[in-house]
Amino acid sequence: MTAKERVKTALEHRNPDHIPIDFGATSVTGIHCKIVEALRNHYGLEKHPVHIIEPFQMLGEIEPDLQEIIGTDCTPLFGPKNMFDIDESSVHKQTTPWGQEVLIASGIDLTPDKEGDVYIYAKGDRSYPPSAVMPSLCYFINAIERQPPIEEDQLNPEDNLEEYGPLSDDELEYYKHAVQKAAETGKAVIASFGGTGLGDVAFIPGMGVKEPKGIRSVAEWYMSTVMRKNFIQEMFEKQTDIAIENYKRLWETVGNQVDVVFTCGTDFGTQNSQFCSPETFRELWLPHYKRLNDWIHSNTSWKIFKHTCGAVVPLLPCLIEAGFDIINPVQINAKGMEPAFLKKEFGKDLTFWGGGIDTQRILPAAKPEEIRAHVWKQCEILGKDGGFVFNAVHNIQANVPIENAIALIDTLREIRNA
Question: Is the distance from CB of 307 to CB of 265 less than 8 angstroms?
């Protein structure tokens, strides 16, 4: 099987020749740049600065030589700009606060201030207050909330839609060429077009907006799902209208060269519970998710990828009803998220994209032989009868011992060749 065929077979809930693997195809299935460099060094690959493909989490590009070693079957299709609305076509060499030389978008300066903090600016414009910060001794970036004073009678859902709008002809041309390049790899193309993350708190602060208006505090946003339901409904309605129009033009531009669309990264779970009840989900989110997903299923060949961390078992029937094909990251250490139960109860309706290794307790802390046993077990449970693409539970972080990352990769190679 080709890599693309392998992924598509798994998505059809049939057994491929072996379990497909994704590392690096999305912003939630990646590897921190520090670990990418360590892996390249370990495997004796060419030494050069790692390219940061997602600066918010400092994810490193997994180039073809490392992809071959890992055995990845997926390739990313990201947009022309990052979360700070900074053009990704121009990069420059920078040194991270931990001393690693990287390539990063030219609008980002990683030079720390006297306290050791690194500040990021919307659109790279330093004439406005910073929109994000990498605190001293931290390996990734945090949003800075710039919530303006809220006047209830002046709230306008349009203010929270400032960063969403119709795709330009230039953006469509970018996607046309980018998808052709991605498709030439022979791997499954995973597209992150953006604009469809309803209430994703990673985007609520508006890190790419110079002067954000509306509801821009994460706490205020969650309170709004109870206090300002009409505001939320109107915002979601308009955002979905924009998304469907953009997806129509994207389908005309890239067609079936894309295999999977990552539409939404809104988290609904904590370690032990959910951010909302199934009733609230059905009221606020489900109608809009279903409208977008129904359009995708009726008009394209794309499979739909939904990311949500946490203990989301009570919400999985709702996500299935909403039309999602794929769930990620499959947080197997959260309450109720036992792999065997998930596979039995939801394995016919959902593809589990993740859950291959616990990144909270196992990958950073276990011994290599424990990692091997853990990965084999997860693959045996989740890989039965297809419906599984191997990935870790979210991105591999900078604090993972390199010997553990190597043990993971070596085990995947062993499983692949079994």
Answer: yes
Beta bridge partners of 52: 60
In tens, the pLDDT along 56-94 reads 999 999 999 999 999 999 999 999 999 999 999 999 999
Give 144-186 pLDDT, tens digit per residue.
Answer: 999 999 999 999 999 999 999 999 999 999 999 999 999 999 9
- How many CB atoms are located within 10 Å of the residue 151 CB? 7
Query: Could you give the angle at the alpha carbon of 212 between the alpha carbons of 284 and 230, nearest 5°?
Result: 25
Q: Characterize the bridge pairing of strands 132-134 and 351-353.
A: unpaired
Which three-class secondary structure state does DSSP give residue 353?
Answer: strand
Task: Specify whether the CB–CB gap between 49 and 43 falls below 8 A.
Answer: no
Backbone angles phi, psi at 326, to 5 degrees: -130, 135
Distance, CA of 316 to CA of 331 (rounded, Å): 13
What are the DSSP E strand ranges found in 96-202? 101-105, 118-120, 132-134, 142-143, 188-191
If one counts every other C-beta atom within 10 angstroms of the C-beta of residue 234, the result is 16
Structure tokens at 4: 């693309």
- State residue 143's pLDDT score: 98
Give the Cα separation of 142 and 53 in Å (integer): 17
* Residue written as token pair 């193309």: 189
Predicted local confidence at residue 418, as pLDDT: 80
Q: Domain 3-48+55-84+147-416 belongs to what architecture?
A: Alpha-Beta Barrel (3.20)
Under 8 Å CB-to-CB from 314, ≥6 apart: which residues? Answer: 274, 277, 278
Q: Cis link prior to 329 (omega < 30° from 0)?
A: yes
Per the CB < 8 A criterion, the answer to whether 341 and 365 are in contact is no
Instruction: Give the number of other CB atoms < 10 A from CB of residue 102.
Output: 23
Phi and psi at residue 394, in whole multiples of 5°?
A: 75, -175
Beta pairing, strands 74-77 & 188-191: parallel
* Helix runs in 143-228, H state only: 169-183, 218-227
Q: What is the Cα–Cα distance from 62 to 30, expressed in whole angstroms?
A: 8
In sequence order, what E strands does 106-205 have? 118-120, 132-134, 142-143, 188-191
Whether 358 contacts 393, CB under 8 Å: yes
CA distance 21 to 37: 20
